[in-house]
Design goal:
The chain is α+β, with helices and mostly antiparallel strands and 130 residues long. It has 3 helices and 7 strands, in the order E-H-H-E-E-E-E-E-E-H. Strands 1-2-3-4 form a 4-stranded antiparallel β-sheet. It has a 3-stranded antiparallel β-sheet with strand order 5-6-7, with no helix packed on it. The protein starts with 12 loop residues before the first strand and ends in a 5-residue tail after the last helix. The relative contact order is 0.18.
Length: 130
C-alpha cells in the first residue's frame, strides 16, 4: 500500500519507486554494445537490470521511529532514526545516491525511489545536523 506524503509524523509513508537510474544505465549500455565493447556494455546493462529488479521489489517505508526496507510483506532491515547521525542526498539536480550515517555504520543507497518524497520524509522525520 502506498500512501501519499502528509505532515502527520505518526503515519507510515511508503515511497513510490523511481526507475530513472536503471533506465539510464540500460540505455547507456546500448551504444557500448553496438561498438563491440561487450564487457563494459554487459556490466552496465547487468547493473541496470539489477537496479531495476531492486526498484520493482523493494520499498522504503518511513514510520514514526524507523526507516524500514521491505520486500513484499517481509521486513528486510530497520534503521531507527535515534541511531542516525547524519544523512545526505548527493547530486541535488540529478539525485543518484542517498547516504546516511548511523552510530555504528554508514550506508549508501542508490535512489530507486521518488527523490522529492525521500527528501521531504527525511527532513520531517530525521532533520539533518550540519
Amino acid at each position: 500500500m502506498t500512501t501519499s506524503f502528509t505532515s502527520n509524523s505518526l503515519s507510515t509513508i511508503e515511497l513510490k519507486p523511481s526507475y530513472n537510474i536503471p533506465i539510464v544505465l540500460i540505455i547507456a549500455s546500448i551504444p557500448l554494445l553496438l561498438i563491440k565493447q561487450f564487457v563494459a556494455g554487459g556490466i552496465i546493462a547487468l547493473l541496470g537490470l539489477f537496479l531495476m529488479f531492486q526498484a520493482v521489489t523493494l520499498r522504503l517505508q518511513f514510520t514514526a521511529t524507523d526507516l524500514d526496507i521491505v520486500r513484499g510483506d517481509n521486513l528486510l532491515r530497520r534503521f531507527p532514526y535515534s541511531e542516525w547521525q547524519n544523512w545526505r542526498i548527493f547530486w541535488g539536480l540529478v539525485p543518484i545516491l542517498f547516504y546516511f550515517k548511523e552510530v555504528k555504520s554508514i550506508h549508501f543507497l542508490p535512489i530507486l525511489f521518488d527523490p522529492n518524497s525521500l527528501k521531504a520524509c527525511l527532513e520531517e522525520r530525521c532533520p539533518r545536523i550540519d
